[in-house]
């Protein structure tokens, strides 16, 4: 079966028995990719690269707070998953550009929908935190 195939039926438990991949299964390779995409640095890196290609240090400035080591690890993982393309220019000093692949663009667009939604609902989130903290403080 093709990896992107969709099941026509869903069981009562919500499982799609015809899917080639199941992110809820411990050994499924889709779980690692989901972690790369939805982790803090992966999501922010993909979102930033949706704006266009970046050199490493430009990207590091855009993704405020990421260390050089974490950005490097994140880019390697996203490149390995086929979401980011790394282009090394044969110049002195070497120039390396990063940009999204077509698959990376699709993923980033979906992530940005969630990011924009969360940004738009932060007043609700902050109010919920305030209520939660007040309830917790009242119990102590």
List its traits.
6 helices, mainly alpha, 55% helix, three-stranded antiparallel sheet, disordered N terminus, 140 residues
Summarize the structure.
This protein is mainly alpha-helical. It contains six helices and three strands.
The general outline is globular
Secondary structure: number of strands:
3
Are there runs of 5+ residues with pLDDT below 50, and where? 1-15
Quaternary structure classification: single chain
Give the neighbour order of strands across the main sheet. 1-3-2
Residue-averaged pLDDT, rounded?
Answer: 88
CA(first)-CA(last) distance: 56 Å
Query: How is the biggest beta sheet arranged?
Result: 3 strands, antiparallel
**Derived structural class:** mainly alpha
Q: Spell out the helices and strands N to C.
A: HHEHHEEHH
Strand content: 5-15%
Describe the structure.
- The chain is mainly alpha-helical and 140 residues long.
- It is 55% helix and 10% strand.
- The protein has a 3-stranded antiparallel beta sheet with strand order 1-3-2.
- Strand 2 and strand 3 (95-100) form a beta hairpin.
- Helix 2 (40-49) packs across helix 5 (102-120).
- It is globular.
- The protein starts with 28 loop residues before the first helix and ends with a helix.
- Residues 1-15 have low confidence and may be disordered.
Task: Summarize the helices and strands and which ones pair or pack.
Blueprint (H helix, E strand, L loop, with lengths): L28 H10 L1 H10 L4 E2 H7 L5 H13 L3 E6 L5 E6 L1 H19 L1 H18 L1
Antiparallel strand pairs: 1-3, 2-3
